[in-house]
Design goal:
The structure is a homodimer of 345-residue chains. Chain A has 345 residues and is α/β, with parallel strands linked by helices. The first copy, chain A, is 40% helix and 17% strand. In chain A, helix 2 (42-50) links the parallel strand 2 and strand 3 (55-58). In chain A, helix 1 (13-24) packs parallel to helix 2 (42-50), helix 7 crosses helix 11 and helix 9 (276-287) packs across helix 11 (325-341). The model of chain A has no long low-confidence stretch (mean pLDDT 95). Chain A binds chain B through residues 93-97, 100-101, 104-105, 108, 111-112, 147, 149-150, 153, 156, 160, 163-164, 167-168, 170-172, and chain B through 93-97, 100-101, 104-105, 108, 111-112, 147, 149-150, 153, 156, 160, 163-164, 167-168, 170-172. Chains A, B: Pathway: Carbohydrate metabolism; galactose metabolism.
Chain lengths: 345, 345
């Protein structure tokens, strides 16, 4: 049995998939989640998939005393993967104070508690949004691309949290950290036991695609067909959530069990740019379901194209995105069908 | 009688001088200070100077519930001047988590409480450090100069707090704000009843100068004599603290009583660059006291030269730095003599 890992936000989309992969790799997991944006029964799903029930504590990471008690209750926690965060870009524009407080205080609490409880490593969920606006000068984006002013309070909390971790380590804190900059995570577990649960109208492309295919949304709008890309639609790097989850396992091994630098940054993407139109076509081809979609004007704030150079993660973490776009989109559809079958969405 | 103003950090260096000027201008003042870096008897000093005793509450701005009670106790608070912050650059490098937590949470608390208690305006203490490193491209620095990555956690909290205020106002919060970017505040009240109280070895030039003149420090080191400046030493914009305090009064009038934009930014400086060597010479000339000083190698992280373009504050706030460098340095020396006479330093 490997070490015990605290997964904050462990009942959320990426957190739950990462818990599955951590348990598959032999780690013990303690989930902390305040359930503000996820369901407790995700823990049942994780147990069903892996045969192991992770420990679960319904606690808000912003509550310093409560988090202190969690570490005291599980004194063998060796590392943390910190997913817990308010994460809706649009909501962050409307409620910036909520985002700054939640996302910064929760991280500062963890960093303050780590030395006290002898926790050695932390993996932080960052985002390619730090490469910001306008479009990156060089594609694919490497980890040393310039950090741009954030476009939203949400994006700013990712940047500030990266800076807080860097400053903490530079101050001599006895911890190590890895920042993972995700590109666009999509798909669901192949079992369709856990998956992405958008609140209300989805802001991300894939849930909108699957809900349109299911008839929940009338029509998919593809924003802009006159971008400087081969088919005129925006290009992103869509990374399968299970592949992304496996990157966390590799990162945790590295941060806890090697003499790696105290702070490292990795892009987590496929290295392949895929256009919105290609997603639509690939979804129809993979599922045989016809999508009702149309072009609409460009949406303010969208960047034209961005995709990762994942070579550093490939070479240093020994991790690579392996799942085809077809299988990824099939998993998303299977999850949507499951939600329908269970009367959830 | 004008409105009631909450001054956080009101027993500190700039906060106490600003309270004096607010009261001189007819405002009622409520001071909130946790006394972590100042003394309660500063309130006596303010009363002695102005004839009016400000209300005082020993409260930490990071304590949301306690701040809520302060606003409830003084329901006529119309505006806030927010000085309270951890402010030592060097300490912030050693204890970054303390700085991020204190400086960000205290601001977020105030911004959340303002609409609830019908507080209309806030003046935020920012700093020319946001123009950052390396040296500004254009001198003097105007308010639209690019914001550079912060050189210290302290500087970063100033930047992030500017962004939080901007995001809050962009979200539609029913408040107005003015960001004042201070250059180098120096000197003390002409009465020598209140002044700057550095903790331990001063990190700023003027307290080091006056303590050396007093014999508390053996020798003043002037770091670098080979900069690209007329006499080879660094150039800064030293602003008399009483002039700076008066800028806050003008800013408060504007934010509360005019139809100004919801968010405005002003440099607060003299517009005149003064070299370290000039300060040494001017101090000796103004006080007749000989300084024991020597050149020392450049200090890592010092920028070569920076001074403000204060035209926007001159024109829009109707404020101008008026005190001569000679009178400013005399005030600093008078304060140092008072500290000696009272056996304090």
């Amino acid at each position: 049995m490997k070490q015990t890992i605290l997964v904050t936000g462990g009942t959320g989309f990426i957190g739950s998939h990462t818990t599955v992969e951590l348990q598959n790799a032999g780690y013990k997991v303690v989930i902390v989640d305040n359930l503000s944006n996820s369901q407790a029964n995700v823990v049942d799903g994780i147990e069903k998939i892996t045969g192991v029930r992770p420990a679960f504590e319904q606690v808000d990471c912003c509550d310093f005393e409560a988090m202190d008690k969690v570490f005291a209750k599980y004194p063998d926690i060796a590392g943390i993967i910190h997913f817990a965060a308010s994460k809706a870009v649009g909501e962050s524009v409307e409620k910036p104070l909520l985002y700054y407080r939640n996302n910064i205080v929760s991280l500062v609490n963890l960093l303050e508690l780590m030395p006290k409880h002898n926790v050695k490593g932390i993996i932080f969920s960052s985002s390619c949004t730090v490469y910001g606006q306008p479009d990156p000068e060089n594609l694919p984006v490497t980890e040393d691309a310039p950090i741009k002013p954030a476009e939203s309070p949400y994006g700013n909390t990712k940047q500030v949290n990266e800076e807080i971790i860097r400053d903490d380590i530079n101050s001599g804190a006895p911890i190590k950290a890895i920042l993972l900059r995700y590109f666009n995570p999509i798909g669901s577990h192949p079992t369709a036991i856990i998956g992405e649960m958008p609140n209300g109208v989805p802001m991300n492309l894939i849930p909108y695609v699957t809900q349109t295919a299911m008839g929940i949304r009338e029509q998919l709008k593809v924003f802009g067909n006159d971008y400087d890309t081969p088919d005129g639609t925006c290009i992103r790097d869509y990374i399968y959530v299970v592949d992304l989850a496996k990157a966390h396992v590799k990162a945790m091994e590295r941060v806890l069990d090697t003499d790696s630098d105290k702070l490292e940054v990795f892009n987590v993407g496929t290295g392949r740019g895929v256009s919105t139109k290609e997603i639509v076509d690939a979804f129809e081809a993979a599922t045989g379901v016809k999508l009702n979609w149309t072009f609409a004007p460009r949406r303010a704030g969208d960047i034209e194209k961005v995709w990762a150079n994942p070579e550093k993660a490939n070479n240093v973490l020994g991790w690579k995105a392996e799942t085809s776009l077809e299988d990824t989109l099939k998993s998303a559809w299977k999850w949507q069908e499951k939600l329908r079958n269970e009367g959830i969405q």
